[in-house]
Amino acid sequence: MRIRLFPILAVFFSCSILASALEMPDTLPGHLRFGDSTVFFHIRGTLADSASVTHFYDSDKHKENSLSMRLRVDGQITDAFVFRAMGFVSNDKTSRDYVDNFYDPYDGLPYNHQGKGGRTWDTFTARSEYRTSFGKLMGGVDYLEWGPAKHNKLTLRGSNNNYRPWMDSTMRLQIPAPTPFFGFELNAGPVTYTQYSGKLYYDKHKDKYFHANRLDLHLPAQITFGIGETIVYGSTVEAAGTNPNRDADSSDRHFEWVYAIPFVPYVFAQHYLGDLDNTGLSFDISVKTLPHLEFYGEMLWDDMKKVTSMFDDSWWGNKWGASVGLTTQERPIGPFKYSWTGEFTQIEPWVYTHHKGEGYTYSNYGQSFGSELGPNSRELYTQLDLEWKQLKLTLSASNVAKDSAKGSNISDIHDPNTDGTDRNFLADSTTARYREFGAALTFVPFEWFWVRAGYSKFIGDYEGYRMEASTGVTW
After folding, report:
1. How many CB atoms lie within 10 A of CB 314?
2. What pLDDT does 50 receive?
3. 3-state secondary structure string, the chain?
4. Which of 9, 17, 172, 228 suits a disulfide with 21, CB 3.0-4.6 Å?
């Protein structure tokens, strides 16, 4: 099986994409339009079918088929007020068995178990914006994203999701969830300020919240520098006495309006409230000075005290992650257009975690708000896209290291009595290392129809392959 499949399929099959990612982007206006030039809305629907076969040689082969339907509505009520909404419904079948889902957010997005090997599930987004000459007001349930990284966004990854071998499970939906939020954006010359407040979910009976602010400075020579803050807090979900940290007492938290006040730095606000919460500081830069090239970088500081502490392995709380890359997009070469991206990511142990437990962890519906790699990981990734008429070929490769020791899972809680104070990055005895190679072929003969297929080959501590294909119509 290993010898026959790879040379035949590797020519046109892909690595590192979920079945949902195999669908064509649905960004064009809908074919159905109602209203006039001031008040109108578009309707666009998509019907898609996707299938995948995953086989890691130390486990059974996993086959899955999904039939999905998506309906999108967007438009405006006035020239200033715009909106969009999307509903997604999927019916899945698998060669394994899906387990029951009890609708607790820590199990991921909910689904309905439809007997042996079947399930149905749905999700949605909705977003409204009121736009003015100096900015906009925003609100809804949507994916929030910022930062220039293409493959591993560290702070707010939005709907970005990359397939990882440890996702090969029927116990949960391995995709991020949209987030209820409200916020605003202000523009003043070269400066843009953005602020969000919203709700996260872990236990359906307990409250959990987040806040984020960001300042973008657009400099000459097409250089953009960004700095942002995040705050996460919530009610304690662990049983009283089970968390060994003295300040992790059982308590209920409610929405802190201080964090929602415009232009209040969280570094000061959290001290004002008693130094209770999970804070993060992020920096990023995008440089497009050279024609057709972009250099970018992201840095996430999770509770670090000073810059030099990131090089100090003697304290577990010196938590940071970085992602740097170089990309060029849609460059002509003869009759083709090509795009290329190379990116390196490193995330230290305990990043995204918090010693007070899940109420303060940087997660929503059991998934990281940042990179799905999680803490204590490293990846070198590259991707090449070639386009010719209605065809697009994607070649990709990655080298991944992921530790499984304590401090490598976003839900881990540091125990000051047993876990020590040092930081051990990618320990040899507990780290899984693998390489992933592949390609994808997409054919779009018409705006409303597509076919795509993919194959990925895994070598190393994860040994196996994943095949995927999808087709669909959009109207």
Report:
1. 10
2. 96
3. CHHHHHHHHCCCCCCCCCCHHHCCCCCCCCCEEEECCCCEEEEEEEEEEEEEEEEECCCCCEEEEEEEEEEEEEEECCCCEEEEEEEEEEEEEECCCCCCCCCCHHHCCCCEECCCCEEEEEEEEEEEEEEECCEEEEEEEECCEECCCCCCCCCEECCCCCCCHHHCCCCCCCCCCCEEEEEEEEEECCEEEEEEEEEECCCCCCCEEEEEEEEEEEECCCEEEEEEEEEEEECCCCCCCCCCCCCCCCCCCCCCHHHHCCCCCHHHHHHHCCCCCEEEEEEEEEECCCCCCEEEEEEEEECCCCHHHHHCCCCCCCEEEEEEEEEEEEEEECCEEEEEEEEEEEECCCCCCCCCCHHHCCEECCEECCCCCCCCEEEEEEEEEEEECCEEEEEEEEEEEEECCCCCCCCCCCCCCCCCCCCCCCCCCCEEEEEEEEEEEEEEEECCEEEEEEEEEEEECCCEEEEEEEEEEEC
4. 17
- CA 31 remoteness from chain centre: 30
Amino acid 458: pLDDT? 98
Which pLDDT does position 250 carry in this prediction? 80
Q: Give the predicted TM-score (pTM) of the model.
A: 0.90
pLDDT digits (tens, 9 = 90+) for 225-275: 999 999 999 999 998 889 999 888 888 999 999 999 999 999 999 999 999
Look up residue 177 and give its amino acid: A
- pLDDT score, position 318: 87
pLDDT of residue 306: 60
Low-confidence stretches of the chain (pLDDT beneath 70) = 1-31, 304-310
Number of neighbours of residue 125 by Cβ within 10 angstroms: 17
Give tens-digit pLDDT for 413-461: 999 999 888 889 999 999 999 999 999 999 999 888 999 999 999 999 9
Report the distance separating Cα 328 and Cα 415, nearest Å.
Answer: 45
Q: What is d(CA 3, CA 210) in angstroms, rounded to the nearest whole number? A: 49
Closest CA to 360 of 243, 260, 271, 272: 243
How far is residue 101's CA from residue 320's CA, in Å, rounded to a whole number?
34
Give Cα separations from 351 to 64, 155, 318, 408 (angstroms). 33, 11, 9, 8
pLDDT of residue 8: 32
Spell out the domains of the chain, with CATH numbers in brackets: 2-474 (2.40.160.10)
